[in-house]
Amino acid sequence: AIEARVVLWLAGDERALEMFRTGRSLYLDMAELIYRRKGLTKQKDAQEYAVGKMAVLACSYGMAAPRFKAQCAAMGIEVSLELATQAVRSYRDKYSSVKNMWYSVDAAARKAIRGRDAVVLCCNKHAAWGMSRDKRFLVCRLPSGRHLRYFKPSIKMSEYREEIHYQGPGLGGKLEDQKTYGGSLVENITQAVARDLLVNGMLKIEAAGYPIVGHVHDEII
Q1: Is residue 171 very low, low, confident or very high in pLDDT (cuts 50, 70, 90)?
Q2: Which of 119-123, 147-151, 157-161 has the lowest mean pLDDT?
């Protein structure tokens, strides 16, 4: 649950982090909220547990109900659109700090693009946006000091709202116009922080004399 831990830390949700610290299951807690039933267990309520787990892990970046339903189906979990809607709504209500972070990160990135020389804090002051010195990149400084970079950023108006665009690799590696939004930017930051934690662990493991033969997602072998 590394991504769930990191995104809640970035959002400053101490109540949820305390649940991790004390060994309580966020998945069962979410399942009880979705199904409006108390006393669920992983063994007796496997379906409910699976839906709660999916909500905690999949709804951190702005996923809507139709996509949630499809994600569940891909994992062999059949849910109705009504239940998917309830799951998404339950996550956003329970973890409003994460939902608010989507919008604050989006606003901070747009402010940095417009300000050109501004440094704008976000993610509970754990990260910061700014433009590179040559103004070619939108840069996010991570807690580790490492940078995420978005080439040739711009702000464009869609039918409904402002959107952040940048140049990124498409099929075949050719640069093309791409757009992003707060939830996706939070996903980028969260996964980058998780990566930095993994690399830190790899360095410690090697220093302790254990040779690493590979790593997959969040696992060091």
Answers
A1: confident
A2: 157-161
Cβ-contact 105, 189 below 8 angstroms: yes
Q: Quick one: which H or E segment has residue 23?
A: none
Q: Is 205 within 8 Å of 220 (Cβ atoms)?
A: yes
Read off the pTM: 0.92
Alpha-carbon gap, residue 203 to 183, rounded angstroms: 30
**What pLDDT shows up at residue 116?**
74
Residue with tokens 């075949």: 172
> CB–CB of 42/49 below 8 Å?
yes
Give Cα 27 distance to the centre of its chain: 17
Nearest alpha carbon to residue 79 among 66, 91, 90: 66
Angle between helix 46-58 and helix 2-11 axes, rounded to 10 deg: 50
Among the listed residues 182, 53, 196, the one whose alpha carbon sits nearest the alpha carbon of residue 109: 182
